[in-house]
C-alpha cells in the first residue's frame, strides 16, 4: 500500500511528531498529517505485521491526537484513528438492507463435484476454457462493508442474506478494516465489499486460557467466537478479542461522474489486488488462478493437507470464475451464484454417546466435570474424554447421561461438546448431579461470588497436592525429564512423595526396586532433578502454581526481583504497577506469599539446593548477545527450537515472535517457510544457520 518513498517520508514525520509530542498541532493540516502517520503505523502493525514503531511511541502519538481533538473538536473527522472507539451499544441492533443480496455458495465435497461444476460453466458460457480464481474459504462471521466517498459508512452482518444487523460500531474496532480508503483513486464513489471476520488461532487460545483461568467456559471454536463477537454490545470487549477481517469480493459499486471502469474491476483476481493495495486484508497471497479444473482440484487438496498450519480456521476453498463478464453471463439462482462453488474439507464434527461424567480436582482446587463418551474419530484423533469445564456448561447445554451429543474438534482446539441431540432421547437418560463435596477428600465445596467454578479449599487435598507436583516437574516449569505425571502419581501412591520439596529427597534405592527402573533410568532421573536446581527463577515462579500466574507473568516477576522471597515484600499496589498485572493477579500473588506454609516450602527448597536468586538475569544482561534479537524457524539439525531459544536468552538475546525490522537474526532450519521469505525482503535481518548460531555463542 505504501511505497518506499512514502514510508521514508512518514517515518521522518513520525520522528518529528515524537520530538514535539508535548506540543499539539497548531493547524488542521498538521493534525491531518498526524492522522496519516497513525494510519500508516496501524497498517504496518495490524496488516503487514511488521511494526516500525514501539508501542509506547505509538501511544504518545495517539495521546497527542486525542489532546489536539479535545482542544479543537471541530477538527475531528469520521476516519480519525480516535473514532475507532465507539460508545456502548444499547438495545437491539438496527436491521439494514444489503445493496446486493448475500447469497450462499453451492457446495462440493469431492473432485467429481468440481468437474461437474466446470462442465456446467463451460456449457453455459459457451467457452472452451475458463480461468478460475481459487482462494481459502475462511471460517468466521460474514460481514458486508459499505464505503461512500472513501469513508466507511456501514458494517453489517450477513443476516438472512437480504438484510443484516448494523454493527458499524463493532466493525470500527477491527484494526484491519480501514476507516477510509482511496476508492476515488479508481473512480469509485460507492462500494459494497464482502468479507469474513476471524480470530487468529493464537489469539483465540490466549483468550480461552484467560477464561479457563477465571473459571469460565472457553469459547467453542474460533468461528463461533468471531461470529458471536460481532454482536456483542460492548465495543471494548470486541477490541479485547482482537478480531481480524479478510475481504474477498466486491459485490456492488458506482463510479464517479466521468470515470470509466478501472482495469482492476474486470477480474476477481484484479479486485483482490485493488483491495489489498487500498490497505485491506484480502487473500492475494493465498489465491491462485488456473485455466484447467484438474489444477484447481490439486490446489484444493494440497490446501486441505496444510490447513492446520494456517494461522486461521478455514473449512474449504472457494472456486470463482475469474472474468466478471463471464460471471454476469452465468448469473445466479435464487440461492447461489452459478459462477462460484465451495469445495468443503472433511468434517471436524461427529456424534457420540455420553456415557458418564467424572469429576476431577485441579491443582487450585477447581472441580472440573469430564464427559466420557463412546470413542469417536474426529480431526485425525480418537476422542473419548471431553472437559465440560463447570456446572454452568452442563446446565446451559441441558446434558444428560445417555444423550447423543455433537462433538467438534478443529485443528489444535480441544474437543468440545457443541450440544446434546435432545430429539434422539429415549427417556432412559439420567440427570447429571454435581457433587456438593470434593470427590477426593470429601471437603465441602465452595464457589466464589462471580465465578462459575466450584473449588475444594482444603489445601491438603491429595488430588491438589499431586496436581501441584505434576505442574512443578512439567516441561514449562522445572522441566524434570523422566519425571512425568505417571511417576509422580506412582511415587505419591506408594507414600514416597508427599510434597514439592520431597522431589529433592527421593530414596533412589527404593525406586530401583520398582519394575522399569534400571540403573540408567535412575541415573537420568537423578541428573534431571539435580539439573532442575539451576533453572531460571521465572520457571520456579511458574512451577509454584500460583493462581493466575502464567509463564509471561512469571518472567515479569522474575525481572523485578533478585531473590524469590523478595515477592513477599511487594504490596498489591507495587505488583499492579508491573506490566500486565491486574488486581486479581496481584491479589493472588500477595495471598500466596502471605501463607506461612508456602514460605516454609520455599525455604526448604532453597535448603535442598534449589537456586532462588536471579543470577540468570545478571548473566543475560552482560551476555555476548545482549541487545540482539533472534527468531528460530524450521526444523533445526541438532537443537530443539525451545533449547536454542533458551541458549540465546541465557546470553542476553531476546526472542521475537515474528519477522519484522526489529529482528537482527533469523536462524533457519529445514522447511523454514513464510518467515524466511519475509526476512529476505528486509535488508537489516541477517539469515543464518544453526551452525552459524552455535559458532556465534562459542559452542
TrEMBL record:
- Which branch of life, at top level? Bacteria
Q: Which GO terms fall under molecular function for this chain's record?
A: DNA binding; DNA ligase (NAD+) activity; metal ion binding
Quote the Gene3D superfamilies the UniProt record gives.
Answer: 5' to 3' exonuclease, C-terminal subdomain, 6.20.10.30, BRCT domain, DNA ligase/mRNA capping enzyme, Helix hairpin bin, Nucleic acid-binding proteins
Q: Which co-factor is required?
A: Mg(2+); Mn(2+)
Query: Which GO terms fall under biological process for this protein?
Result: DNA repair; DNA replication
Q: Which UniProt keywords apply?
A: DNA damage, DNA repair, DNA replication, Ligase, Magnesium, Manganese, Metal-binding, NAD, Zinc
Active site at: 137 (n6-amp-lysine intermediate)
Reactions catalysed, as given in the entry: NAD(+) + (deoxyribonucleotide)n-3'-hydroxyl + 5'-phospho-(deoxyribonucleotide)m = (deoxyribonucleotide)n+m + AMP + beta-nicotinamide D-nucleotide
* UniProt binding sites for NAD(+): 55-59, 104-105, 135, 158, 196, 320, 344
List the PROSITE patterns hit by this protein, alphabetically: BRCT
Task: Supply the enzyme class, top level.
Answer: ligase
InterPro entries in the cross-refs: BRCT_dom, BRCT_dom_sf, DisA/LigA_HHH, DNA_ligase, DNAligase_adenylation, DNAligase_N, Hlx-hairpin-Hlx_DNA-bd_motif, NA-bd_OB-fold
Note whether Metal-binding occurs among the keywords.
yes
Keyword Metal-binding belongs to the record: yes
* Ranges of residues in domain BRCT: 620-699
EC numbers: 6.5.1.2
GO cellular component assignments: cytosol
Q: Which SMART domains match?
A: BRCT, HhH1, LIGANc
Q: Which Pfam families match?
A: BRCT, DNA_ligase_aden, DNA_ligase_ZBD, HHH_2, OB_DNA_ligase
Residues holding Zn(2+): 438, 441, 461
Family membership: Belongs to the NAD-dependent DNA ligase family. LigA subfamily.
Task: Please give the function described in this protein's UniProt entry.
Answer: DNA ligase that catalyzes the formation of phosphodiester linkages between 5'-phosphoryl and 3'-hydroxyl groups in double-stranded DNA using NAD as a coenzyme and as the energy source for the reaction. It is essential for DNA replication and repair of damaged DNA.
Please report the name of this protein according to its UniProt entry: DNA ligase
- Give the originating organism: Niabella ginsenosidivorans
Amino acid at each position: 500500500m505504501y511505497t518506499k518513498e512514502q514510508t521514508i517520508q512518514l517515518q521522518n514525520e513520525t520522528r518529528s511528531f515524537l520530538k514535539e509530542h508535548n506540543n499539539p498541532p497548531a493547524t488542521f493540516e498538521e493534525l491531518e498529517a498526524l492522522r496519516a502517520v497513525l494510519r500508516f503505523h496501524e497498517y504496518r502493525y495490524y496488516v503487514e505485521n511488521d511494526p516500525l514503531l514501539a508501542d509506547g511511541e505509538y501511544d504518545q502519538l495517539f495521546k497527542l491526537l486525542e489532546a489536539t481533538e479535545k482542544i479543537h473538536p471541530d477538527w475531528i473527522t469520521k476516519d480519525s484513528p480516535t473514532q475507532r472507539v465507539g460508545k456502548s451499544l444499547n438495545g437491539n441492533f438496527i436491521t439494514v438492507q444489503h445493496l446486493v443480496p448475500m447469497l450462499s455458495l453451492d457446495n462440493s465435497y469431492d473432485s467429481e463435484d468440481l468437474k461437474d461444476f466446470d462442465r456446467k460453466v463451460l456449457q453455459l458460457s459457451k467457452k472452451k476454457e475458463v480461468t478460475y480464481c481459487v482462494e481459502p474459504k475462511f471460517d468466521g462471521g460474514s460481514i458486508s462493508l459499505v464505503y461512500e466517498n472513501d469513508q466507511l459508512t456501514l458494517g453489517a452482518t450477513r443476516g438472512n442474506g437480504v438484510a443484516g444487523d448494523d454493527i458499524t460500531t463493532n466493525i470500527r474496532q477491527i484494526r484491519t478494516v480501514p476507516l477510509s480508503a482511496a476508492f476515488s483513486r479508481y473512480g469509485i464513489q460507492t462500494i459494497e465489499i464482502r468479507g469474513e471476520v476471524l480470530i487468529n488461532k493464537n489469539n483465540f487460545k490466549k483468550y480461552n486460557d484467560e477464561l479457563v483461568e477465571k473459571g469460565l467456559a472457553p469459547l467453542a471454536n474460533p468461528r463461533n467466537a468471531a461470529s458471536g463477537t460481532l454482536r456483542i454490545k460492548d465495543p471494548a470487549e470486541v477490541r479485547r478479542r482482537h478480531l481480524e477481517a479478510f475481504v474477498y469480493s466486491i459485490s456492488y459499486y458506482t463510479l464517479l461522474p466521468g470515470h470509466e471502469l478501472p482495469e482492476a474491476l474486470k477480474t476477481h483476481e484484479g479486485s483482490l489486488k485493488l483491495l489489498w493495495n487500498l490497505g485491506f486484508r484480502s487473500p492475494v497471497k493465498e489465491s491462485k488462478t488456473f485455466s484447467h479444473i484438474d489444477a484447481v482440484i490439486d490446489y484444493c487438496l494440497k490446501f486441505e493437507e496444510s490447513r492446520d498450519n494456517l494461522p486461521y480456521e478455514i473449512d474449504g476453498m472457494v472456486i470463482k470464475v475469474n472474468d466478471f463478464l463471464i460471471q454476469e453471463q452465468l448469473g445466479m439462482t435464487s440461492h447461489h451464484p452459478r459462477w462460484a462453488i465451495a469445495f468443503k474439507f472433511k468434517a471436524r464434527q461427529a456424534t457420540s454417546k455420553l456415557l458418564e461424567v467424572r469429576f476431577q480436582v485441579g491443582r487450585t482446587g477447581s472441580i472440573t466435570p469430564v464427559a466420557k463418551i463412546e470413542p469417536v474419530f474426529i480431526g485425525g484423533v480418537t476422542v473419548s474424554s471431553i472437559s465440560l469445564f463447570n456446572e454452568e456448561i452442563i446446565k446451559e447445554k441441558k446434558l444428560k447421561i445417555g444423550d447423543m451429543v455433537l462433538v467438534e474438534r478443529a485443528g489444535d482446539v480441544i474437543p468440545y461438546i457443541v450440544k446434546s441431540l435432545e430429539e434422539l432421547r429415549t427417556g432412559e437418560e439420567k440427570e447429571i448431579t454435581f457433587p456438593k463435596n470434593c470427590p477426593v477428600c470429601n471437603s465441602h465445596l465452595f464457589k466464589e461470588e462471580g465465578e462459575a467454578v466450584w473449588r475444594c479449599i482444603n489445601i491438603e487435598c491429595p488430588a491438589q497436592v499431586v496436581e501441584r507436583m505434576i505442574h512443578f516437574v512439567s516441561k514449562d516449569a522445572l522441566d524434570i525429564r523422566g519425571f512425568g505425571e505417571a511417576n509422580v502419581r506412582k511415587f505419591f501412591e506408594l507414600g514416597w512423595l508427599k510434597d514439592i520439596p520431597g522431589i529433592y529427597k527421593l530414596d533412589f534405592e527404593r525406586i530401583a526396586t520398582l519394575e522399569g527402573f534400571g540403573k540408567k533410568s535412575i541415573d537420568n532421573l537423578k541428573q534431571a532433578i539435580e539439573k532442575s536446581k539451576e533453572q531460571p527463577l521465572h520457571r520456579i515462579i511458574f512451577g509454584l502454581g500460583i493462581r493466575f500466574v502464567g509463564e509471561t507473568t512469571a518472567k515479569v516477576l522474575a525481572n523485578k526481583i533478585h531473590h524469590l522471597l523478595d515477592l513477599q515484600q511487594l504490596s498489591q499496589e507495587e505488583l499492579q504497577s508491573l506490566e500486565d498485572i491486574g488486581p486479581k493477579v496481584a491479589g493472588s500473588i500477595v495471598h500466596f506469599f502471605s501463607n506461612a506454609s508456602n514460605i516454609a516450602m520455599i525455604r526448604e527448597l532453597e535448603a535442598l539446593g534449589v537456586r532462588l536468586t536471579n543470577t540468570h538475569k545478571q548473566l543475560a544482561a552482560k551476555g555476548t548477545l545482549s541487545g540482539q534479537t533472534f527468531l528460530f524457524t524450521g526444523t533445526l539439525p541438532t537443537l530443539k527450537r525451545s533449547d536454542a531459544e533458551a541458549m540465546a536468552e541465557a546470553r542476553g538475546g531476546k526472542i521475537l515472535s515474528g519477522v519484522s525490522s526489529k529482528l537482527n537474526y533469523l536462524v533457519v532450519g529445514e522447511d523454514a517457510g513464510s518467515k524466511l521469505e519475509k526476512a529476505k525482503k528486509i535488508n537489516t535481518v541477517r539469515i543464518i544457520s544453526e551452525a552459524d548460531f552455535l559458532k556465534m555463542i562459542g559452542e
